[in-house]
Amino acid sequence: MSTRDLSRADLHTLAAAAGVMVDWVDASDQPRQVSEQSLHAVLTALELPAATATQREDSLRRCKAQAIEPAPLLTVQVAALLPVSVAPDASGRWVDDSGASEQARADAQGQVRAPQRFGYWTLQIGGLTQQVAVAPQRCFSVADACGLPAPRAWGMALQVYSARSIDDGGIGDASGTVEWVRHAALAGADALALSPVHASRPVTSGYSPYSPSDRRFLDPLHAAPVRVLGELALDAINEVPGLRERFDTLHHSALIDWPASAQAKWQLLRHLYTRVAADHADLVAFRSEGGAALEGFARFAAQDFGDGDPQLHVFTQWLAARSWSDAQREAHERGMKIGLIADLAVGFDPNGAEAAAAADTVLRGLVLGAPPDAFNADGQHWGIGAYSPTALRRSGYAPYIALLRAVLRDRGGIRIDHILGLLRLWVVPEGASSNEGAYLAYPLHDLLNLLALESWRHRAIVIGEDLGVVPPGIREELSRRGVMGIDVLMFTRDDNGAFVSPTLWRPDAVATTTTHDLPTLTGWREGRDIDWRRKLELIKPAQASDDVTARSKDLARLDAAVEHAGLSAANDPLLGALRFTATSVSPLALLPVEDALALEEQPNLPGTVEVHPNWRRRLPDPLPHARLSTALQGFAEARRVAAVSEPHP
User: What domain of life does the UniProt record list for this protein's source (predicted)?
Assistant: First the structure.
């Protein structure tokens, strides 16, 4: 073997030890291998230099040492054997986080079995003290929420910023969301899935809910002051000179002007801050409960927004938190079994508050993206940060646990964007092209255990966005752990391109007609996505022509499938498609608001920034109530009929 071959072999050995995947399979099911140059760059960013044989040996030695370091927190499932060994027949105590305890005993081989009750425990036995997260076998489910063995629940999916309500200043908020809670609940829905409402950095130009400053905290731009402060908030809008006029103008715009609306809403928030006493009892309690994490976030935000007053940001977090807890309360009062479903972004702004708060556990010199595929030859460069898998383990997963608790608070469920991030993430060295990245492995077993545990502690369902390329066996493992996937109508085809009957869709996935990154059903039927890509020169004219031809065939296939299922609606193919989706065997079906209203344009067009109005479209004013009523009634009725007609064991 040549010196170069030895060097390459050593490099690959080091990469494997560091969790960097040398070999991977692309979207076309073709094997790919990360270049040596990319491996060097990624390993260097992970502080594992590999330029020389000595460096590779030293870096490999460090990886091996890290792998055998005692873990501050072990995760196991209930009644499972722990990966520890003590003296045979040793006895001790299990102590949970409430102080309650029970006996611990090692078997004849010195192995210890976890308690039957899930929770966070401390094991004290034979001189060993070990923190252990004991997880249930699966996440809290729709069946658990509904109290039914085979539920056929349904709900809606809302882009929060798009909703309209009086005095929203041009950006949808919790008040506008509550209006959709009412629409959905009245029709019998049990859930309303939301776009992310994470805390953002100051809005100076574009905006994306998937590039937050801090996922642990909320965006005050979506707070609903009137729902928390009542008349005080109404009066405040009129007290600030010119604010009423600006609020009215921004409210009626078809597209959100994020900088202008953010400026107006922050002007209101700052004025309200001066009107609410610092010793307001609930605000004081909120500040105390938030502790060091809230104070740290507030200090960062005060500097980031340039106002220098951390207590302002404590106040706005209180306002946002109480707005959303009030919305969830109303959802339950109106009969929703699940209520609001939060959306958890896959990462965060590398220069934002979350990165600053967890500086010791954040990847440095690497950002997230996606590898090349048929739609993006150069891959995707998301420019967002993530946690280091090694540092997460070393921290006892503290940032991850805190994140789950924050996002699940006052929610009935969570949708995790890019659920494969619990297994691997495509990391790209800063300044490099996306195709120069590599997959970095994450501790799926531990992360799923903690997710299941927090899911039950909050009684919240879990949805994992699993679209795209998924390694073999992963969907099965997610299903086993109670993480529902997502089945999207336009992707549920057989090998010949025909649409599969919804009775054959996955029984462990959420059914939906579309997502925020895909065309609406109306837009898909009219080819709006093709029009946009042709207009923006994302595809060539010849490709656009081929896509139009293919789309025509797809429409015929869908209409045929709907007719075969006996769900066609006279002169209303959209309604037929909604009914078709609603008959899925999924425990939960979600109807996006855009499809309920038969809107043409999609919320986001991936691969674009300023040339398409991403995250800016507001819902029509006034709403087409007749269309909405028809869609909700049709979806709900098809869901009920499917539940009744389905044979049960």
Answer: Bacteria
* CA distances for 125 relative to 85, 99, 122, 131, 466, angstroms: 10, 16, 10, 12, 41
C-alpha–C-alpha distance, residues 303 and 355, integer Å: 15
**523-556 burial, b for 16+ CB within 10 Å, e for fewer?**
bbbebbbbebbbeeebbeeeebeebeeebeebee
576 contacts 632 by C-beta, under 8 angstroms: no
What is the domain count for the chain? 2
CA-based nearest residue to 193, from 422, 515, 581: 515
User: Same domain, yes or no, for 11 and 48?
Assistant: yes
Q: Are residues 9 and 31 in the same domain?
A: yes
Q: Span 614-642, mean pLDDT?
A: 96
- Indicate if 8 and 62 belong to the same structural domain: yes
Report which of 202, 218, 309, 319 is spatially closest to residue 263, judged by C-alpha positions: 202
Whether 214 and 357 have beta carbons less than 8 Å apart is answered as yes
Q: Retrieve residue 259's tokens.
A: 């900088």
Residues 84 and 62 in one domain: no
Look at residue 648 in the predicted model and tell me its pLDDT.
Answer: 45
Domain boundary among 119, 135, 151: 135
Q: Among the three residues 67, 97, 119, which one is the final residue of a domain in this structure?
A: 67
Q: How much is the pLDDT for 646?
A: 61
List C-alpha distances in Å: 84 to 101, 111, 124, 125.
20, 7, 12, 11
Domain extent, residue 29, equals: 3-67
For residue 43, is it within any domain? yes
pLDDT of 521-556, one tens digit each? 999 999 999 999 999 999 999 999 999 999 999 999
pLDDT of amino acid 1: 46
- The answer to whether residue 119 sits within a structural domain is yes
Q: Are residues 7 and 58 in the same domain?
A: yes
d(CA 453, CA 97): 13
- pLDDT, tens digit, 9 for 90 and up, residues 322-356: 999 999 999 999 999 999 999 999 999 999 999 99
User: Does residue 123 form part of some domain?
Assistant: yes
What stretch of H or E contains 632?
A: helix 625-645
Mean pLDDT of 400-423: 98
Give the confidence band of 468 by pLDDT, cuts at 50, 70, 90. confident
